Amino acid sequence: MKGGKTMAMNTHFRVRADVVRWIIEHSDFDQLTEEWQLRILRWLEKDVRPSVQQIKQVSDKLGVPFNYFFLSEAPVEDVPLLALRTIRGERKPSRNLTEVLLGMEEQQKELSSQRERQGFGFCRFLGGGVGSHEEPKVIAMKLLERLGLYHDWVFQRDPQQRFESLQRALTKLRVVVMQSGFVRDDAARQLDPDEFRGFVMLDDFAPLIFVNANVTWSEKLVVLAHETVHAWFETSELFDASDELRQDFRDWEQERQVYNVTRALLLGSYL
């Protein structure tokens, strides 16, 4: 068995040029050493066939799924939230961010289908604030009432305690809250908090909020509160450390409202 595995890893395979180009464009290729970049660029030559072991090494280094290298055409990854980054002209998303989004989307679809089969109704929390033009403090008060936190929230000052209270309240309303600091149980692939702090993915049965765990409890609380408000207004969002009012002009009024309600929620200005 061991000998067969070694033989398989030494097998050489022609990686299609369009697949190689896609991998270069959609990965952290520019962060590799020049030596590794040149090795991969050589795969574009017709007569070059890397071994399966070499493909595995590149897969690990770039964070690109191993099976992508054996496709007959370039892969297609449909990640709607990444369009927000494209609109704002930021650097291309890392493979870590892309894979976290894909992984959460996969889990959300599975849970959503399960809940629908089991006869769950739509998540009534989602969109509760749509169409509201009230003062931010009034919206924050109504949001806390819907979460069942109005009487306790103001007396809590520890950010971890507030985060956990908000997480429990959202879970009771069937909003999924996930947090992690790395990709798919791989501690070597740390999520960069400078790239993103969290996101919210809408779904009728299983709306999902993800929080990057590689920040302080105070910062995680801000992210969870911010994404909770987005869910209340029924808008998807990918949040980073400088997101406050820096959205595309088309979304500026909406983001300003979310920011103001989040601020009221956290500071208690609804009292």
From TrEMBL:
Domain HTH cro/C1-type, residue spans: 44-69
PROSITE patterns associated with the record: HTH_CROC1
Protein name as annotated: HTH cro/C1-type domain-containing protein
